[in-house]
C-alpha cells in the first residue's frame, strides 16, 4: 500500500475552514471505516506541559459516491496542511486530495471536502495529524495522578474514557457505535512507563528521535465500536492470574495499592469462565487487563480487553473495606465482563437501545455473582433492589421508555440511568422467569451467534427469543416476544393491577392502569402492559412457581382489557399476585384481602408469605398510602408486623420507603411523634442484632451484616437504645490509638455510621482527626466512607468550610468524590439550607468546575428533590433553575424529575401530613396504654 501525502501548503493553497451547513446529528452513511491505525505519543514528564499528539490512518470503504469525508473530532488541533488521502490499491492512478475542511461544532463534525468524487466500491486511506493538551477532564484521553508517599512525589498516568461519545476527543474517527472497525494502536511514551491497550503487545522498539522513548505496537483488534477503544500509559504494578486453560488475566493498580487487588484478580477470571459457559461462546480476545484508575468519572468501563475502574470499585482491602464493598467489587467486575458479550461482541445499532447493553450487563452480573458466591444471595437481593428503584423513578410522569430516541450527545449521557440499567434488568429478569431457563439460554445463544461482531436492535433479540420459545413451547404459538416486550420497552412506566375479589363466586377481577405518583395527573389511557400473572393463595402457598398462570393482555390499539381469574379460595383465605415479584408491577387488593394479609403478617405465620412478597406488600401499601389509594392506618397496621421480621429484604423495603417520609417529617414540628414511631419500630430488630456491637466475622450470613448496618444507621439517627453512646465510644477508642492509621477498633460493617454519629455529637477536634485519617488513608473505599461521614457535622461553619473544600480543584478531594460529598452535605441534618444557598450563589463556578461533564450537575441537584415539600420552596427552586439555564445545560431529564419529585412531596404534605401524623400519634398513645 502506498500513501500519497499531499502537503497542500507547498502548493500554496490555504484551506478555508468554514462552518458546515450539514446539520443532521448522525454521520452521513456514504462511508464505512474498515481499519484504523492510531499512533499516539504521550508526554507525561513535564507537569507544566502535559500533551499528546498522533497520527490516525483510516481505511474507508465508499458505499455511495460522495464528495466529503465527515468525521467526529472535538478539541483536537488538526493541521489541515498535513492531511493525506489516497486510494488503496490505486497506484499509478491520479491521486485525490482535500480541497477544504469545515467544522460543525454542534455535532463535533470535522468535514473534509475532497477534490474529486469518492467512488462507491473503492477504499481510500485518509491520514491526519492531531495534537491536544492532556487535561484532567475525565473523558476522552486524560491524565490522572497519585501520591507516592515514599518518594514524596506526584506520579502521573494517562487513560481513556470514550463511552459514549468521547473517542472524538482523542483522535478523529467515525464515533458512532454502528461503525465497527479493526484498531491497530501504537503508543509512544517514556520507557519508564507501561503502555496498555485492548489487545496484547505486538512489539516494542525505541523511538526514532526522542531519547528514552519507545513505541509499543499492539495487535490488531477484532472489529469493534470506537467507544470501546482504550489505552493507558502508567507506572502501575499488576497481579497475574490465570485459570487453567483460561484467558490471560491481569489486574493493575498503583504500586502502593496493588495488595488491594487480590480479590478482583481472583474473581475476574472465575466470572469470565462462567459467562463462557452461560453464553456458550468463548471469550474472543487473548487477554483481559483490569485497571484501577485514581480519577475516574463512572464506576467502571467495559473497554474490550482493557476494563477500567474507579479505585473504590475495583480495589478491596479485607482490613479497611466492608463486605458491602466486596460485594460491590464482585458486582461491578461481573457487570463489565458481561459486557464483553452484551455490548462488545454484539453492540446496539444506536444509543436508543443502550438498555440492551446496560440492562443485560446488570441482570447477567447478578447471575454471575450468584454462581460464584451463592451464600450472598445476590440474585434475589439485587433483582428486588432494582425493582424498588424503578418502582420509584418510573412512577414519575417525567420518566421515559427503556428504548428512547436519541438525537444529541447530552441525551446519550442522560440515558445511563435507572431506566436503562435497573428497568432494563427487571424486564430481562421477567423474561427469564416467564420463558424458563432453557428457552432463555437458547434464545440468547442464537442472538449472540447471529450478531457477533455486528450491531443489533431490540427487535433482533425478540426474534431469536420468540423462535426459541416456540421451539420449546414455553410461549403459546399465538404469542410473540415482540408484542409482549414492546409494551415494556416502548412505553414509559409500569402498571398497578387492581384485584377485586368476588368471595362468593371465588373469582377476581383484574384491571390495570399506569401507576403515577403525581396525583394531579389522570391515569386513564396512559398505556397497557402485557403482564405475566403468577399468583398463589393462603392454602397453596406456592411462591416458587413464577411461571405465568395467565396473562393480562392488551388490544391491538393498546387498550387494556380486564381479566377474570377463577377457582380462587374462599373468603377466609388471602391471595397474592406476582410471586417473588417476577414482573415489574404493583398490586392493590380489595379491603378484605388486605385484611387477611395483615392478619397473617401479624401472626406467628408471617413467614408463610415468601420473603420477597413480604417486601412487596410493604412496598405497595406504603406507596398506595402515599398516593391516597390506601389509608395510612392500614399501611401502618401492615408494617407493624416488622417487629417480628428478621430478614433483610422486608426491612430494606420498609426503611427505603420511610426515608422519604423522614426527609419531610424531620423538618416539621411533629417530628417528635415520628421519632417515637421509628424508635418503636427499630428497637426490637436493633436489639436482636446486638446493636452495633460485635464484629462482622462473628456473623456468618452476608445479608445479616447488611441488615445490621442498615438498622444501626437508623438507630443512631433516631437515637435508639445505646447506639449513639456505643458509636461515640468506638470513635473515642480509635482516637486513643497511638497509630490510628494502622489500628482501627471500629467494626467494618458500621464504620460509616460510627464516624457520622461521632462527628454529629463530637467536637472540631474529632472532625480534624477524621479529616487527617482521610488524608492518610490509602484505601479508596475508606476514603469515601470518611468523606461521607465528615458531612454529618451539626456546626454551620464546619459545613461551610467543607463545602468550600470540595470545590477546590487543587485541594485534597478528587472531582468524582465531590459528587458524593455535596449530596451528603445537602441531606445532612444541618446541611440542607447551607448547600441550597451555596448552590444558588455559586452555580456558575460549580458548573465550570465540572465542565465539560455537564451531566455531573444532575448529581448536585438531585439531593434537593427529596427535601423540598412546601410550595414556597418548590417555587423558589423552580425559579432558580429557570434563571440558571446556561449553567444547567444537558440535564433536562434530571431537572424535570427533580421538580416533579418536589411537587409530589408538596402534594403529600397537603394531602397526607395531617392524617399521617394523627395515625402515628394514635400509635404512640396505644403504646403508652400498653406499656
Ligand atoms: C508529536 O510531538 C513530538 C514531540 O514534540 C514530535 O517530535 C512529533 O513530530 C509530533 N508528531 C506528530 C505526528 O505531530
Ligand atoms: C457529505 O456527503 C453526504 C453524502 O454524499 C451528504 O449527505 C452530506 O450533505 C455531505 N456533507 C456536506 C457538509 O456537504
Ligand atoms: C502544519 O504542518 C506544516 C507542514 O508539516 C508545518 O510547516 C506547519 O508549521 C504546521 N502548522 C502548525 C500550526 O503546526
Ligand atoms: C514533600 O514535598 C513538599 C514539596 O515538594 C514539601 O513541602 C514537603 O515538606 C515534603 N514532605 C516530606 C515528608 O518530605
Ligand atoms: C485444557 O485444555 C486441554 C486441551 O483442550 C485439555 O486436554 C485439558 O484437560 C484442559 N485442562 C483443564 C484443567 O481444563
Ligand atoms: C384501581 O383502584 C383505585 C383505588 O381504588 C381506583 O382509583 C382506580 O380507578 C382503579 N383502577 C382501575 C383501572 O380499575
Ligand atoms: Zn454497563
Automatic annotation (TrEMBL):
It comes from the Eukaryota. Residues 574-902 form the ERAP1-like C-terminal domain. Binds 1 zinc ion per subunit. Zn(2+) binds at residues 335, 339, 358. Residues 263-488 form the Peptidase M1 membrane alanine aminopeptidase domain. It catalyses: Release of an N-terminal amino acid, Xaa-|-Yaa- from a peptide, amide or arylamide. Xaa is preferably Ala, but may be most amino acids including Pro (slow action). When a terminal hydrophobic residue is followed by a prolyl residue, the two may be released as an intact Xaa-Pro dipeptide. It is a lipid-anchor; GPI-anchor; Single-pass membrane protein. One of its GO terms (cellular component) is plasma membrane. The record marks 421 as: Transition state stabilizer. Gene3D superfamilies: 1.25.50.20, 2.60.40.1910, Neutral Protease Domain 2, tricorn interacting facor f3 domain. Its EC number is 3.4.11.-. Its cofactor is Zn(2+). It is found in: Cell membrane; Membrane. Pfam families: ERAP1_C (PF11838), Peptidase_M1 (PF01433), Peptidase_M1_N (PF17900). GO terms for biological process: peptide catabolic process; proteolysis. Belongs to the peptidase M1 family. This is Aminopeptidase. It comes from Drosophila erecta. The gene is Dere\GG12025.
Amino acid at each position: 500500500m502506498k500513501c500519497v501525502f499531499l502537503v497542500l501548503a507547498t502548493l500554496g493553497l490555504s484551506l478555508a475552514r468554514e462552518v458546515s451547513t450539514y446539520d443532521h446529528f448522525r454521520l452521513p452513511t456514504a462511508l464505512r471505516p474498515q481499519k484504523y491505525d492510531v499512533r499516539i505519543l504521550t508526554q507525561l514528564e513535564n507537569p507544566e506541559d502535559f500533551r499528546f499528539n498522533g497520527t490516525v490512518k483510516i481505511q474507508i470503504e465508499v458505499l455511495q459516491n460522495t464528495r466529503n469525508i465527515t468525521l467526529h473530532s472535538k478539541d483536537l488541533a488538526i493541521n489541515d496542511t498535513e492531511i493525506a488521502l489516497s486510494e488503496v490499491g490505486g497506484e499509478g492512478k491520479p491521486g485525490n486530495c482535500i480541497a477544504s475542511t469545515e467544522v460543525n461544532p454542534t455535532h463535533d463534525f470535522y468535514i473534509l471536502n475532497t477534490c474529486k468524487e469518492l467512488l462507491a466500491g473503492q477504499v481510500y486511506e485518509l491520514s491526519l495529524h492531531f495534537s491536544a493538551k492532556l487535561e484532567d477532564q475525565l473523558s476522552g484521553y486524560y491524565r490522572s495522578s497519585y501520591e507516592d508517599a515514599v518518594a514524596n512525589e506526584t506520579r502521573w498516568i494517562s487513560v481513556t474514557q470514550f463511552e459514549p461519545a468521547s473517542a472524538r476527543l482523542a483522535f478523529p474517527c467515525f464515533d458512532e457505535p454502528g461503525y465497527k472497525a479493526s484498531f491497530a494502536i501504537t503508543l509512544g511514551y517514556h520507557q519508564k512507563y507501561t503502555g496498555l491497550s485492548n489487545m496484547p503487545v505486538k512489539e516494542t522498539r525505541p523511538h526514532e528521535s526522542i531519547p528514552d522513548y519507545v513505541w509499543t505496537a499492539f495487535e490488531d483488534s477484532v472489529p469493534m465500536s470506537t467507544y470501546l477503544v482504550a489505552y493507558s500509559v502508567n507506572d502501575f504494578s499488576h497481579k497475574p492470574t490465570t485459570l487453567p486453560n483460561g484467558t490471560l488475566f491481569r489486574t493493575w493498580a498503583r504500586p502502593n495499592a496493588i495488595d488491594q487487588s487480590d480479590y478482583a484478580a481472583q474473581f475476574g477470571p472465575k466470572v469470565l469462565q462462567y459467562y463462557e459457559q452461560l453464553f456458550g461462546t468463548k471469550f474472543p480476545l487473548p487477554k483481559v487487563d483490569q485497571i484501577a484508575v485514581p480519577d475516574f468519572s463512572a464506576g467502571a468501563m467495559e473497554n474490550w480487553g482493557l476494563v477500567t475502574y474507579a479505585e473504590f470499585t475495583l480495589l478491596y482491602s479485607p482490613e479497611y473495606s466492608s463486605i458491602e464493598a466486596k460485594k460491590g467489587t464482585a458486582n461491578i467486575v461481573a457487570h463489565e465482563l458481561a459486557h464483553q458479550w452484551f455490548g462488545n461482541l454484539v453492540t446496539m445499532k444506536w444509543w436508543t437501545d443502550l438498555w440492551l447493553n446496560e440492562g443485560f450487563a446488570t441482570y447477567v452480573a447478578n447471575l454471575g455473582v450468584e454462581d460464584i458466591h451463592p451464600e450472598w444471595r445476590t440474585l434475589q437481593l439485587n433483582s428486588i433492589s432494582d425493582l424498588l428503584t424503578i418502582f420509584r423513578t418510573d412512577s414519575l410522569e417525567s420518566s421515559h421508555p427503556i428504548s428512547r430516541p436519541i438525537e444529541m450527545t447530552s441525551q446519550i449521557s442522560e440515558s445511563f440511568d435507572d431506566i436503562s440499567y435497573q428497568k432494563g434488568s427487571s424486564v430481562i429478569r421477567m423474561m427469564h422467569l416467564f420463558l424458563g431457563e432453557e428457552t432463555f439460554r437458547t434464545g440468547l445463544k442464537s442472538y449472540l451467534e447471529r450478531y457477533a461482531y455486528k450491531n443489533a436492535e431490540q427487535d433482533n433479540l425478540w426474534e431469536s427469543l420468540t423462535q426459541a420459545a416456540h421451539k420449546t413451547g414455553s410461549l403459546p404459538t399465538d404469542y410473540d416476544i415482540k408484542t409482549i416486550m414492546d409494551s415494556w420497552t416502548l412505553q414509559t412506566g409500569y402498571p398497578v393491577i387492581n384485584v377485586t375479589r368476588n368471595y362468593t363466586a371465588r373469582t377476581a377481577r383484574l384491571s390495570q392502569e399506569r401507576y403515577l405518583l403525581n396525583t394531579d395527573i389522570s391515569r386513564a389511557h396512559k398505556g397497557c402492559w402485557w403482564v405475566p400473572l403468577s399468583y398463589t393463595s393462603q392454602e397453596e402457598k406456592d411462591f416458587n412457581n413464577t411461571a405465568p398462570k395467565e396473562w393480562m393482555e392488551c388490544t391491538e390499539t393498546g387498550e387494556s382489557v380486564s381479566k377474570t381469574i377463577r377457582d380462587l379460595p374462599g373468603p377466609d383465605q388471602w391471595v397474592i399476585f406476582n410471586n417473588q415479584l417476577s414482573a415489574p408491577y404493583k398490586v392493590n387488593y380489595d379491603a378484605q384481602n388486605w385484611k387477611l394479609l395483615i392478619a397473617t403478617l401479624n401472626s406467628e405465620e408471617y413467614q408463610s408469605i415468601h420473603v420477597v412478597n413480604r417486601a412487596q406488600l410493604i412496598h405497595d401499601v406504603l406507596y398506595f398510602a402515599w398516593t391516597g389509594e390506601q389509608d395510612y392506618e392500614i399501611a401502618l397496621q401492615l408494617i407493624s408486623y416488622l417487629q417480628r421480621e428478621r430478614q433483610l429484604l422486608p426491612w430494606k423495603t420498609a426503611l427505603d420507603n420511610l426515608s422519604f417520609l423522614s426527609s419531610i417529617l424531620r423538618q416539621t414540628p411533629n417530628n417528635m411523634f415520628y421519632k417515637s414511631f421509628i424508635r418503636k419500630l427499630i428497637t426490637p430488630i436493633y436489639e436482636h442484632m446486638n446493636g452495633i456491637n460485635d464484629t462482622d466475622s462473628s456473623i456468618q450470613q452476608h445479608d445479616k451484616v447488611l441488615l445490621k448496618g442498615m438498622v444501626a444507621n437508623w438507630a443512631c439517627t433516631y437515637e435508639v437504645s445505646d447506639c449513639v453512646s456505643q458509636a461515640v465510644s468506638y470513635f473515642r477508642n480509635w482516637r486513643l490509638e497511638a497509630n490510628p492509621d494502622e489500628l482501627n477498633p471500629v467494626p467494618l460493617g458500621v464504620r460509616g455510621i460510627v464516624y457520622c454519629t461521632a462527628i454529629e455529637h463530637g467536637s472540631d477536634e474529632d472532625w480534624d482527626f477524621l479529616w487527617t485519617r482521610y488524608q492518610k488513608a490509602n484505601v479508596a473505599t475508606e476514603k469515601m466512607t470518611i468523606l461521607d461521614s465528615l458531612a454529618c457535622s451539626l456546626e454551620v461553619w464546619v459545613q461551610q468550610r467543607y463545602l468550600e473544600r470540595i470545590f477546590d480543584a487543587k485541594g485534597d478531594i478528587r472531582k468524582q468524590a465531590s459528587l458524593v460529598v455535596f449530596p451528603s452535605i445537602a441531606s445532612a441534618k444541618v446541611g440542607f439550607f447551607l448547600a441550597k444557598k451555596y448552590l444558588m450563589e455559586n452555580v456558575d463556578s460549580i458548573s465550570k468546575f465540572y465542565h465539560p461533564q455537564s451531566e455531573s450537575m444532575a448529581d448536585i441537584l438531585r439531593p434537593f428533590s427529596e427535601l423540598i415539600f412546601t410550595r414556597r420552596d418548590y417555587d423558589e427552586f423552580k425559579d432558580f433553575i429557570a434563571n440558571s439555564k446556561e449553567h444547567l445545560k444537558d440535564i433536562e431529564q434530571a431537572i424535570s424529575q427533580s421538580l416533579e419529585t418536589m411537587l409530589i412531596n408538596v402534594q403529600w404534605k397537603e394531602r397526607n401530613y395531617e392524617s399521617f401524623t394523627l395515625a402515628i400519634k394514635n400509635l404512640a398513645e396505644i403504646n403508652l396504654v400498653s406499656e
